[in-house]
Amino acid sequence: MKQLEVYFEGHVQGVGFRFTVEHYARSYNVTGFVKNLPDGRVELVIEGEEEELKRFLDVICNSPLKRHIYHCNQTWRDASKALKPFTIKY
To answer: Which of 15, 29, 33, 62 has its CA 20 to 30 A from that of 55?
Structure first.
């Protein structure tokens, strides 16, 4: 089990980004959250099997959302196993 923390930069707020990511998460065996940050980025923290996390991120980065993403910074860690079912944090 791994944890993936991703910070998306670009025009990622106010375009339905979090809601779309939450919709995609329903098709994957992941826990975690997506959250808008005050600096305009969107934070995604997910846990699950490494290949599942990679597939989920690939779907986000190759979906219509990609036109809003200018950069994404990824950090991989061992899973904390403390994350709850996937949700949007406010």
So the answer is: 15
The pTM score is: 0.96
Phi, psi (degrees; rounded to nearest 5) at 48 = 165, -165
> Parallel, antiparallel, or unpaired for β 87-89 and 31-36?
parallel
Series of mean pLDDT values for 10-residue runs along the chain (90 residues)? 98 97 97 98 98 98 96 97 96
18 carries an active-site annotation = yes
Per the residue annotation, which of 18, 26, 29, 67 is the catalytic one?
Answer: 18
Q: Which two tokens stand for residue 65?
A: 């959302």
Neighbouring residues of 16: CB distance < 8 A, sequence distance ≥ 6: none
Architecture of domain 2-89: 2-Layer Sandwich (3.30)
Sheet holding 69-78, edge to edge: 69-78, 2-10, 42-48, 31-36, 87-89
Catalytic residue, candidates 26, 29, 36, 41: 36
